[in-house]
Amino acid sequence: MRSNSQAKSGRKLKRSTTEDLCYTIADFNREFPSDDACLEYIKEQRWPNGLTRCEKCDTERKHYRVTGRTAYACDHCGNHIYPLAGTVFRKSTTSLKAWFYVMYLMVSTAGAISAKRIQRETRVTYKTAWRTLREIRLLLANEQVRSAYPLAERDNINNVCSPLPNQDFEGPRPRGREIAASAGG
To answer: Is the pTM for the entire model greater than 0.90?
Structure first.
């Protein structure tokens, strides 16, 4: 039976399915087709609508993209701001799209992804894949990030990020035999 509002509008409510809730690789590529789209996303997360305080003008101003750089310039004085400053991306030569894709893979596999798979999928060196994966895991394990984003705890990302249950990232890593012994094998 349809409700009164449905009857008036003449539309049926679409029942959401799991297909509607999934974020696919096609969705990812549509939302982040290039490094520029990734940079724009980071900028919008840090400074919604491109408005931020210009240090030189000392007023809230709109900033526009500087061609060929990862910077935005004040529309009045031209002072640059850098959205990647203070992030894991700041000095990385790895493309932003590759970083975003690694994050997508981590979420879509619940963190159960190897550096080797990242290497194959992103066409970077193994060292780069390992470093990218490690940086993201360290970021997720960071106490300040967990408190800023409580959703991460609800989704059990903390369990996914640690290499072994009840292990910290500090100190020496267990070797193969130690891992097998702790797993009961």
So the answer is: no
